[in-house]
Amino acid sequence: MHRRIFKRNEERIHRSVMGYTVAFQRYEREYNRGIRRYQRRASLTELDLALARAEIAYVGDYHTLAQSQRAFLRLLRRLPPERPVVVGLEFVQGRFQAVLDAYIEGTLSDEEFLKQIEHQKHWVFGGFKNFKEILMLARERHYHVIGIDSLGHGPAGSSLQKRDAYAASRLAHAVTTHPHHLVMVLIGELHIAPMHLPAAVDAALSTAGQHPSQLILYQNCHELYFALAEHGREHQTELVRLEANRYCLMNTPPIVAQQSFLNWVDVESAEPQLEAPEHNFKEAVRLIASFLDLPIGNALDEVEIVTVADLSFLARLKERGDFTRFDLHQVKQQILRSESYYIPRAKTVYLGNLNVNHAAEEATHFIRHVVAGVEEPRLLVDAFYARCLEEALGFLGSKLINHKRKHVTLEALAREKRSRAASRRDRLLATLVLRHVGMEAGKKVRGMGTVYSCDAGMFNAVTHVLGYRLGERLYYSLVDGLITKEEVRKVFLDRFDEEGDALTTYLYLVGRTATVKVPERM
Q: Would you say the C-alpha torsion 272, 276, 277, 283 has a positive or negative sign?
């Protein structure tokens, strides 16, 4: 399942990357050729010894994954404090070296530093917090820090090679002007393939007759992870040795790293805190329950939080005996769709995505179940609107935590409905949602029966979109004072036991929020 999720995520990433040219693909293939196999598992003590022997160490960075930068920081902290070090960061362009020096010296504020290095323009991945910790350690230990990135022009592949050449000149200069120092480099993972940046540095130094010992440290290479997983070793392994002076840290499953990039591409997500999904979920529960004055008692003590990083909970569900093969199949399908959900029967929250939106949404579903003990209505129409309301409350809860969260607009659905490029199923989804929205507006709409009687997958998709739309309007109605917290609280507590309750409540809330202005978005 991890492999299937990885492949699908990989396709999404390739579609989202601008400039995925033939030259870029060749550059990527050269990187991939060197990370297909490992010799053996290794200890962190072995890595410490390798760093002790190295004069220049290259560490791969997955820019959107905070764990990548944190791992680099931890490596610096493991070094003897008295060892002289030069830190080379792709985070800063070399042309801003004077600004970087001033910041390390403490004469510039964070805001002024980021402004002068044109951070928002040239480092689009955010994440200054992680780099700041690296810079603060450098200040504390009196490390020299250099920027090694350049603007880079032309097609993606050739641009990468030009940036390698520039970074190599900067690093070679650091090696020659700081003898007896360890040069620690943090740069995008594709750059650290032996034939890329390391080869360029070797070439730049060979003219001066210098041949410093090198160490290459990859992070979370997917083929190595899957090789470990085949033998059940992925959870116990922190480091593998590929060959002499080449290692790979295994601190994050590849699909989690991919998801951090997809989160960034989607723009809607806040920065995930990958080390603490349970903490994030429980904190979201406490915040939302407190805001709406909903009593949850000791329910958090009994809930289990599981993530994409460990799918072993599937075996535990099977062992319980009260999950049928069909139930387990449905769970697996949701995992493959990267969906998060709460499983009341097992008191388990599954986070298919570690961003704050998923954690907050499932926290809301959890609260809803705790305070109302919801059961699915039996009648079709009631089941439809009960599901819409569940989705609305979940989206509202996530907006309380991350007000920047977005959902699909009616304009986008209208375009999807007309698009020849869209799949037949996507066009049908758009058609059914727009048909229902027309009914909400008081229009005479034919074929409403098809909205309720579609197959299970489409039923979930339609209620999801309608629920999110209502949830967003509920949020802005709360902000604008059009609806009170007490009214929302009553919806959380309502079980919708009586026939027609869910339909009545849904239409009432649609009417109550009809005049709210939702901010314009791109």
A: negative
Cα dist from 469 to 271, 473, 518, 521, whole Å = 24, 6, 10, 14
> Rounded to 5 degrees, what are φ and ψ at 475?
-60, -50
- Tally of helices (H runs) and strands (E runs) in the chain: 23, 11
State the fold for domain 2-257.
Rossmann fold (3.40.50)
Instruction: For residue 190, count CB atoms less than 10 angstroms from its CB and return exposed for 0-12, middle for 13-18, buried for 19 or more.
Output: middle
State the DSSP string of 273-298: -TT-HHHHHHHHHHHHHHHTT---TT
In 292-423, which ranges are continuous DSSP H helix? 313-320, 325-336, 356-372, 380-401, 410-418
pTM of the model: 0.66
Tokens standing for 502?
């869910």
Tokens standing for 462? 């339609």
With beta carbons less than 8 A apart as the criterion, state whether 313 and 306 touch: yes
Lookup: tokens for 250: 């295994």
* Nearest Cα to Cα of residue 218 among 197, 243, 193: 193
Tokens at 37, concatenated:
């196999």
Closest C-alpha to 409, from 444, 433, 387: 433
Q: Residue 78 is encoded by which pair of tokens?
A: 């493991």
The domain limits of the chain are 2-257, 267-373, 377-522
Taking only the tens place, the pLDDT of each residue in 118-146 is: 998 888 787 788 899 999 999 999 999 99
Instruction: Kindly report, residue by residue over 304-331, the tens digit of the pLDDT.
Output: 998 877 788 898 999 998 899 988 988 8
Residue 337 CA: distances (Å) to CA of 306, 357, 378:
16, 16, 26
> Closest Cα partner for 48 from 215, 197, 243?
215
At 271-296, the pLDDT tens digits run 444 445 777 788 889 989 999 999 99
Query: What sign results for the dihedral spanned by CA atoms 266, 271, 273, 279?
Result: negative
- Strands of 341-343's sheet, edge to edge? 304-307, 348-351, 341-343
